[in-house]
Amino acid sequence: MATDTIDAAMGFAPDYDSPVPYMQRTREYYKAIGYDPYRWAHYIEVPFAPMTKALREARIGLITTAAPYDPAKGDQGPGAPYNSAAKFYEVYSGDTAQEHDLRISHIGYDRKHTTATDSNSWFPLHALRRAVAAGRIKEIAPRFHGAPTNRSHRHTVTKDCPELLKRVQEDQVDAVLLVPNCPVCHQTCSLAARYLEAAGIPTVVMGCAKDIVEHCGVPRFLFNDFPLGNSAGKPHDQASQDATLELALKVLESAIGPRTTVQNPQRWNADGLWKKDYYDLEAIGEAELQRRRDEFNRQKEIARSIREKAA
């Protein structure tokens, strides 16, 4: 019996409609444009800090990998191509009582299936405010913090993570939500979550790259099976964003040990075909790969120049 006939008879989903294998596709993609495969962080032991307060009495912190919009740094709008000039290389903080224009043009989110027109899908500050108003949590920490998406594991763990810990301790948080966007963002937030938990601060990563987060090993993970750039819920869909935050809070308060993963039951769409497209080398083609190779090298030089000036 043909596979498609068996699938229909059994009610199976198609094989492609599984969590996207971001580590594999990223390795193959960068090899295709001339770079060695990236070494993803991987641990066996995972720290775990239990919640010591009910959420209705808790102050919740927020860590993002999105960047503040700067009109002097080129196109950062919806659908903008990767813009290394918009990257940030040091931890930054913002007042959670204010409004912020945070964008994700500096990272490799899913530009085909993510419109990037609603920052609430990657920066859940408004959803957190609604949770406070509903009495679900006591308060939001006075500041949120930006985590740089360095590809260097050593720099993230020895420089950025200690700075993030220092700032959330100053904020006297009871727990922290970490919201990544691109593949490397997911690793950055995973490393930061591990670092905070080792210091006794409970965390939950809200993300879309299941393989990267679980390969690294984190205490708590809410997996949202959405295109990269939508870790906090569907764009322009407050119900989705609130439900996604609520699930993250439930993971935070209910996990009994490390490596707790809960999958959001929401689906991006009915057929799941979007999962086939991310770094699909056959669809990209050699001519486009060459263009991307040249552009990647150009962006690397821009980033190197910015780092040197900041040093």
Describe the structure.
With 311 residues, this protein is of the alpha/beta class. The protein has a domain at 55-263. The protein is built from 9 helices and 10 strands. It has helices at 3-10, 22-32, 125-133, 153-170, 183-198, 210-216, 238-254, 281-284, 286-310; strands at 59-64, 67-68, 92-95, 102-103, 139-140, 143-146, 175-179, 203-207, 220-223, 260-263. The strands form 2 sheets. Strands 1, 3, 5, 6, 7, 8, 9 and 10 form an 8-stranded mixed β-sheet that branches. Strand 8, helix 6 and strand 9 (220-223) form a beta-alpha-beta unit. The longest helix is centred in the C-terminal third of the chain and has 25 residues, at 286-310. The radius of gyration is 19 Å and the shape is globular. The protein starts with a helix and ends with a helix. The model has no long low-confidence stretch (mean pLDDT 93).
Largest sheet: 8 strands, mixed
Strand content: 5-15%
**What is the straight-line distance between the termini?**
64 Å
Number of helices: 9
* Coarse morphology: globular
Order of helices and strands: HHEEEEHEEHEHEHEHEHH
Mean pLDDT: 93
Low-pLDDT runs? none
Radius of gyration: 19 Å
Tell me the total number of β-strands.
Answer: 10
Indicate the percent of residues in helices. 25-40%
Counting helices, strands and paired strands, the structural category is: alpha/beta
Give a quick set of tags describing it.
311 residues, 9 helices, 37% helix, globular, Various_sel_PB, oxidoreductase, Glycine/betaine/sarcosine/D-proline family reductase selenoprotein B
